[in-house]
Design goal:
Elements: E1 12-18, H1 25-40, E2 50-51, E3 62-63, H2 69-78, E4 95-100, E5 108-113, E6 121-127, H3 134-137, H4 140-154, E7 158-163, H5 164-173, E8 183-187, E9 201-205, E10 209-213, H6 224-239
Antiparallel strand pairs: 1-6, 1-7, 2-3, 4-5, 5-6, 7-8, 8-10, 9-10
Helix pairs in contact: 1-2, 1-4
Domain Immunity protein: 16-244
Protein name: Immunity protein 52 domain-containing protein
InterPro entries: Imm52 (IPR028969)
């Protein structure tokens, strides 16, 4: 941690959210399979994934064959939530799974799906800075492609590309959602996107929704202009009621 309480290494994350949606382990596994197969077409760094183990502690993981549904379904079932006392499955909390790869530093995907509570479902892709993959992945065209893949796989309501430090900054200001970042996605189900500040690019993601892109490269919480512009986008989306996830 730095003296200001932020991380020394700022990492970018693609965070996608959707509201309560009850789905089985098989249904979630099919969505995860579509996600991984589409990611594999984007970049070599996104082709091979592991579960369990721990990349930073030298504990070997289990390779995930994303071409076969059964292993992904097994991981979903391993990620069920249980009560402490009688070990009953808490169905409404859905499934929680983690995946990582052998890049340096490792990329990670965390999925919460099949939940039907007030806590949102999510798919989070952590793109740590440094290494040879950063220039290929941390640019607007690639990030937009990654968001589109995640939207199509999980039928997302809202998403953004942010950084760990920007999330900390927003959390210090209020308890509301981070809401907006370098790129921001809003599903058509959420409502009509209001006019945006000058320079913010508004793109259609076909039948799915709208993508908002800040006119910056290398979004960082250390740049006051980046933070201010993302804050303006966030405020407009909040005022329009577009950051409240819908139950389905």
């Amino acid at each position: 941690m730095r003296a200001d309480g932020l991380f020394e290494q700022e990492s970018h994350n693609v965070l996608m959210y959707w509201g309560a949606r009850q789905e089985s382990a098989t249904e979630c596994a099919r969505r995860a399979q579509r996600l991984f197969q589409s990611l594999a077409e984007c970049d070599p760094a996104l082709r091979h994934w592991y579960t369990r183990g721990h990349t930073t502690r030298g504990r070997p993981g289990v390779p995930v064959d994303t071409k076969v549904l059964a292993p992904l379904e097994e991981e979903m079932l391993r990620g069920r939530h249980w009560t402490d006392r009688n070990k009953r499955v808490i169905e409404e909390l859905g499934f929680l799974t983690h995946f990582w790869n052998e890049e340096t530093p490792a990329l990670q995907i965390t999925i919460t799906c099949g939940a039907y509570t007030s806590t949102p479902n999510s798919c989070i892709l952590m793109l740590r800075g440094g290494g040879t993959t950063s220039p290929r992945l941390l640019n607007v065209p690639m990030l937009a492609r990654l968001m589109t893949i995640m939207v199509e796989a999980w039928d997302v309501d809202h998403g953004l590309v942010s950084t760990n430090n920007y999330t900390l900054l927003i959390g210090r200001k209020d308890s509301g959602p981070v809401g907006a970042g370098w790129l921001t996605y809003v599903s058509r189900r959420q409502g009509e996107v209001p006019p945006m500040p000058d320079g913010v690019r508004i793109e259609s993601l076909g039948e799915h929704g709208t993508l908002l892109v800040l006119p910056v490269e290398g979004f960082t919480a250390d740049n006051a202009e980046h933070v201010a512009l993302a804050g303006q986008v966030r405020q407009r989306l909040m005022n329009a009621g577009l950051l409240e996830l819908r139950q389905r």
